[in-house]
Design a protein that fits this description.
The chain folds into two domains: about 90 residues; about 140 residues. The chain contains seven helices and no strands. The N and C termini lie far apart (about 105 Å).
């Protein structure tokens, strides 16, 4: 063999070092007994997922803390409202009881007693609404919602419950107005008051009846939404149309009443019974009623076109 193919000592030492290094590297990459080798990319991905999940947990914890203090404040607010309305109810009931006694012995008129009794009845309904608000705030940690498209909370329809109480309150007001109109009518027949006073009450009765009808229609609309028969957008538009119709009817009644009152005042002015300034005030009221009527009609027109 020629010397060309004979390895020198340095080559042999170098080759031995390379073989030993490769052997050690190969052994390090072999999985240990009972373990599964995992590619480096998977290890990195796992670490990233862990970091992300930790971040999500931190965010959720932060949200919980945030919601916790919000709930604490909201519950405290409605509880304060409940306590105030309880105190108000107790006071009005005491006043109603005392008024009933005074009425029974002729110290006050029936009308005065009915006004005080109405205040006590309405205070009781206000407390019912506050108690509903308290239950909802404790269940959601948020301000109670009155939109007709608000969700049902834990199987309980707080929106409908509040609407029913509001309708009862409107019915109390209507009963009081009718009672007042009845007394005025008797007094007109006896010549104790003018018919103008009775004419002022009649539009109020019409407006109150319209408000009760509005409350009932809203209840029916809410029922359809909860049953899944109509979507939220349609509920919102329909609810606004109901409100617009009520506003239009109220504005129309107010306009007609003001117009009639102005004519009556102008007749008195012509006879020199009242001053011109009084007539001007009534005319200004008529202008306000006309503006409200125009606005209500415009709102109704826009909403009907949207639907």
């Amino acid at each position: 063999m020629t010397k060309t193919y004979e390895p020198d000592s340095r080559f042999v030492e170098r080759l031995e070092w390379q073989l030993a290094s490769e052997y050690r590297r190969t052994n390090r990459l072999k999985p240990a007994a009972g373990k599964v080798a995992v590619p480096r990319r998977m290890v990195v991905a796992t670490l990233l997922v862990g970091v992300l999940l930790t971040g999500v947990a931190v965010i959720k914890a932060a949200e919980y803390i945030k919601d916790s203090w919000r709930k604490k404040i909201e519950v405290a607010r409605v509880e304060t409202e409940v306590n105030l309305r309880k105190a108000r109810l107790e006071l009005t009931r005491e006043e109603a009881s005392a008024a009933k006694t005074r009425f029974s012995i002729g110290l006050i008129q029936e009308e005065e007693y009915q006004v005080i009794k109405l205040a006590a009845d309405k205070a009781a309904l206000d407390l019912e609404i506050s108690l509903l608000n308290q239950d909802e705030a404790k269940a959601t940690g948020e301000t109670p919602r009155n939109e007709l498209y608000a969700p049902v909370v834990g199987g309980r329809d707080f929106v409908s419950e509040r609407l029913k109480i509001e309708r009862r309150e409107l019915e109390l007001d209507l009963a009081a107005l009718k009672s007042s109109a009845g007394r005025l009518e008797r007094m007109v027949k006896m010549g104790l008051v003018s018919a103008d006073e009775l004419d002022q009450v009649q539009p109020q009765i019409g407006s109150q009846s319209a408000m009760i009808d509005k409350a009932q229609r809203r209840l029916e609309l809410r029922s359809r939404f909860v049953a899944g028969k109509i979507p939220a957008r349609e509920v919102e538009i329909s609810d606004r149309i109901i409100a617009a119709e009520s506003n239009l009817a109220r504005a129309q009644n107010l306009f007609e009443a003001q117009k009639k009152r102005l004519a009556w005042m102008q007749d008195r002015e012509a006879l020199g019974l009242i001053s011109k300034s009084w007539v001007q005030q009534v005319r200004y009221g008529l202008d306000e009623a006309q503006a409200e009527l125009s606005l209500a009609a415009l709102e109704m027109d826009v909403l009907k076109k949207v639907k």
